[in-house]
Design brief:
four-stranded mixed beta sheet
Amino acid sequence: MGKREKKRIKGNHLKPRLTVFRSNKHIYAQVIDDSDSTTITSCSTLEIEVKAKCEKTSNKLASKIVGETIGTRLLKHNIKEIVFDRGKKSYHGRIKELAEGARLVGLSF
């Protein structure tokens, strides 16, 4: 991702930024308020409640569960709109499943 695209993706109090990082074994999601430089909530396949719901942590099902989990946590904070930041990865596969899992819960982006 170049500097131009990074400048466009910013989160604020009303629409925080959902950042996704994908490794070979796990997927991590973090919601950041860029105006305060604070993390609102985070979720990954390393958490016990997520690991209990899926067999493997490196597949699409695990990514969807992480998306649903972070979506429910954001709804508890009364946040319904976010900005999606996928990093350098393409919107495909596990990243897409995480986004669809968050949309299933009721987030819009």
